[in-house]
Amino acid sequence: MIKEPICVHISDKHSEKVMDFAEKVSLTTNYSDCGQNDYRLKVYQHYIGKMGELATFLYLRKGYEINEPDFKIYHGKDKSWDSDLKVGKVHISIKTQDISSAKRFGLSWTFQHINGGRSDASIKSETLVIPTLYDNSYYDKTRIVLFPSIDIRDVVFGEPKKESLKGKKLVMYANDNYKDLDEWLEDLNIELISS
Q: Which of 25, 57, 112, 138 could bridge 120 with an S-S bond, Cβ 3.0-4.6 Å?
């Protein structure tokens, strides 16, 4: 589906729509099992996640019949666990990391996986993962870098680097999953630490 990294620039109008969603949905979520109770952090995480979904949708709709990202606000048990996006019968999970986190921890994407608790639905199913990078340090525009899609069954997972996340998350490190990563990062003018 995606073979090489693609850059998608997001308009201010789209960004405002995503922020409105992030602020509203963050009031309905409870991440106490992960120690995430900071409202501003939840807003930011929802914001960059939905930006990744939107960028992927905007790119893929040029060549595929794809559903639009879901901006509906669900409450409690009504929360949707559907795939982020779908192309025909193909379920797509979008994972987004921001540039500052990538510079601190290396390019990587986290999946919920609490021992004896909640797990990311994409881990248990036949899903295509499209990792994205939220990069707001690129000149004066926000760009989202879409990395090549990968079947969840082919993803090499590792342990989180942060002790507090061990036993709660699995991590897809870019270095373990993309052999051309260094070349891509150079072409994209992205300088990161080694993961």
A: 112
